[in-house]
Amino acid sequence: MFLEIDSVSFAYPGKNAPWILSEYSLSMEAGERVGIAGPSGRGKSTLLRIIAGLECPLQGSVTLDGRRVASRDIYVAPEDRQVGMVFQDYGLFPHMTVAQNIAYGLFRLRRAERRQQVVTMLELIRMRDLAARYPYEISGGQQQRVAIARALAPNPKLLLLDEPLSNLDATLRADIRAEMCEIMESSRITCLFVSHDLDDLAALCGRIETL
Ligand code: ADP
Ligand code: MG
Hints:
The protein has 211 residues and is α/β, with parallel strands linked by helices. Helix content is 32%, strand content 25%. The protein starts with a strand and ends with a strand. It has six helices and ten strands; from the N terminus they run βββαββββαααβαβαβ. Adenosine-5'-diphosphate (ADP) binds next to helix 1.
């Protein structure tokens, strides 16, 4: 298995804090696109944060590409997991241009390689001519594509997407679903989506699980 979440339990700190996840398990094969459906407040974002290394499970383990990244006595930092994340609100840096946002995670590359990878990503999302714009100067759908490009740029093993279409208006949504499928297919990356919207998941994923 490429991703193995094994009996993960989690609660946020605090006295009498409720269990957000209770012995949750999920397995994914490399190249799969899996969707996790669940109503608001169920713990979908928390699950992604645990996989990305932004939270630590209290019990259980997470194994990625044969490497244990989280368990009782193991914690691998987010930057060492090779996991990309697209946040629900995209989380673009407002003071950076499109190109600078995409380059953000490429600090390990030399300058020329970094520049080349930014161009490759801009072409993938078909926004080469908008490289110098700031996030407030582009549409919601374009911001979403930049967030995907930023997450994909460092060549992660796994891409996590949190409610990727929820901030888009309904008329844009169908177009963007198709566009996203294209981007995912051409990058051939293993993707885990979470959403409360089953239609979005059905359009984007090969398999849907519930939380
Ligand atoms: P979902 O993404 O499915 O809407 P979340 O993972 O965001 O759910 O949240 C699950 C539960 O955890 C919610 O009840 C939420 O209020 C709570 N929660 C989320 N973040 C925190 C936090 N930092 N501290 C305490 N509780 C939190
Ligand atoms: Mg959420």
